[in-house]
Amino acid sequence: MKxxxxxxxxxxxxxxxxxxxxxxxxxxxxxxxxxxDSSIRHILVRHEQAAAHAADGYARAxxxxxxxxxxxxxxxxxxxxxxxxxxxxxxxxxxxxxxxxTALLGNDAFQESDITGITMPVTxxxxxxxxxxxxxxxxQEAFYVARTGRPGPVLVDIxxxxxxxxxxxxxxxxETVSLRGYQPTYQGHVRQIEKALDLIATAERPLVYAxxxxxLSGASAELLEFVEAAAIPVTTTLMGLGAVPGDHPLxxxxxxxxxxxxxxxAVTECDLLVAVxxxxxxxxxxxIETFAPNATVIHIDIDPAEIGKNKKVDVPIVGDVKAxxxxxxxxxxxxxxxxxxxxRIGTWKAQYPLGYRDDDHLxxxxxxxxxxxxxxxxxxxxxxxxxxxxxxxxxxxxxxxxTWITSGGxxxxxxxxxAAIGAHYARPDLPVVDIAGDGSFQxxxxxxxxxxxxxxxxxxxxxxNMYLGMVRQWQELFYDRRYSYTELPPVDFVKIANAYGVExxxxxxxxxxxxxxxxxxxxxxxFVLDFxxxxxxxxxxxxxxxxxxxxxIGVRQQ
Amino acid sequence: xxxxxxxxxxxxxxxxxxRVAGMFSRRGFNIESLAVxxxxxxxxxxxxxxxxxxxxxxxxxxxxxxxxxDVIKVSDLTKRESVERELALIKVAAETGxxxxxxxxxxxxxxxQVVDVGSKTLVLQVxxxxxxxxxxxxxLRQYGIKELVRTGKIALLRGAKTVKSSK
Lengths: 558, 167
Ligand SMILES: Cc1ncc(C[n+]2csc(CCOP(=O)(O)OP(=O)(O)O)c2C)c(N)n1
Ligand SMILES: [Mg+2]
Known about the structure:
By secondary structure, chain A is an alpha/beta fold. In chain A, helix 1 runs parallel beside helix 6, helix 3 runs parallel beside helix 4 and helix 15 (364-375) crosses helix 16 (387-395). Chain A is globular and about 70 Å long. Chain B folds into two domains: 2-80, ACT domain (Alpha-Beta Plaits), CATH 3.30.70; 83-154, ACT-like. Chain A, domain 2 (Alpha-Beta Plaits), CATH 3.30.70.1150. The A-B interface holds A 116-117, 120-121, 124-125, 128, 145, 179-183, 303-305, 308-309 and B 10-11, 14-15, 18-19, 22-23, 26, 56, 59-60, 63-64, 66-72, 165-167. The structure holds thiamine diphosphate and magnesium ion.
């Protein structure tokens, strides 16, 4: 016989788990006791929200399932924002929570909360384990559900008496999971694929609109091969950045609310839109009625519920993006004549480059550009939420998938720093940089304790405008510059970092940017860079809420 | 906008009803009626849901329902030949005298059964489609309906066809 806690740890090991981000408490004591001398590494965070984000960052950087662990009640509730963040971006994590003993369930026992009930809307699935004998099966199912199909978070709630309960040793575990209510479709329908290829062969102005699904399915190579073979320009969503190299001649950068002019014009003018692993989010489409108004739409996605949800689709293809693109490549016989279109787009790109005022002020875009120039795509860049996120998306040149980690769907401030910690454990070989806002960083600033304790070499680059900048930008543009509660008083971030034992540097001159970044990156451990940037810089171009995506403000013309 | 009858085959597990119902309310789908119970398969239940919406909404409802791991199969019975029934129990005021006789007559016409006889009330049991039950309710209202309960609609495909597992 062995305990439920032991069974759990062995089940995690069978799933290949090497790292858990967690925080202990009463009902998870039996699990922590097993972790004490287990081969699984446990990283003690300073807040459970950070454990969930770290598991999520680990998953995004590695493509494997991230794992976090928290106690019942407050611990479990603190995970919720992190789980919801992962859910919105379809990130595979398994969240383990302790629960009060089964005999006390429903009694408002100390630190009881109905975490399976609470997380039902933000998990792909969840489990309350009532019998230690179920642990093997449940853990196996949880990982399977999290990583297959459209990935997503799965929560497993484990009452204390299940952890201490006895399980028969040597009970065989099934080789594969089979759930009669869950059978994702991986291969696209051949007839639909043929239909799509016919359209591709005759389109004059085709455009690929690629999203996070390409990254999740590991289909970057196939996508690149496809757009090159078919000579189709490609624009990506925020989540899709890095799916194709940002400096590729066919790449138009990001589309949508803060998309590039060329991308948004291309969407509006295209006659065929090939949507790959995307969900026509409102931040992408703007006014949906005017999104790609002239286009026939092909939509490839593993989740049938996304097809036709927001935009009418002419050729739906349900399947794994990678498998469908492989089928495209093996079946494609003819490509359309897109030369005129590609050259027109080239003209747009030259005519409407991104840009900002290049004077001697320290502007946030410059910091991002310098970082991009130093890392050359060979690093993992994480962002917080707000202007910092959009400047990173626009001014950093992502060249590979899984090197860009950001909270897209939920837009969770405070996500970046803990996610960067997770990314480090997934890719210890790469430098990991969190581009932060001063507001966002303060939402999980306590994780300085974690990076200090384990000497995690995450670099925090604060684009410090002493504002909740993105909100201030909206107030400036749409609320008559009434800056209602968006100003943040100056904070000495270097002192805070130092207090935790982390090195830091404040930079308030453009001339100091490059050297500071290089110093931080050359340092072995964590580092905090506080860049005092131009305070009222805006993210442009911008599509105002409710407008069509070709109706941008703050545009520039070369 | 018209009502659609969905037959949803689910794992008979704790929480499955709240998963389905929660998804409906979260996504703003309106449940007209819902009936749940065990079915011919062991470890499975069948939920019959009547939902209002145009075809696009109902398609989303079905896809989102299908995504739930504990949901095995979802079918829209509206477009297919099916039998649909609802059961209601109606407690109606029926003092002895002419009204009681009238009520019994109405019950007879509707093939409702008297399942309880009290000195001041009768409890009628009626089965049929929603319109029939509505009609009976309307007729009995003049006598005074003390209490009324309806099961919500249940439905099956006609003939040999079935709504079985394998999504
Ligand atoms: C948890 C959370 N609360 C509120 C918001 C709304 N919000 C979006 S951006 C933003 C400002 C972010 O400020 P900062 O981190 O300093 O970034 P900046 O925009 O200045 O670069 C706010 C408050 C959010 N996205 N997340
Ligand atoms: Mg700020």
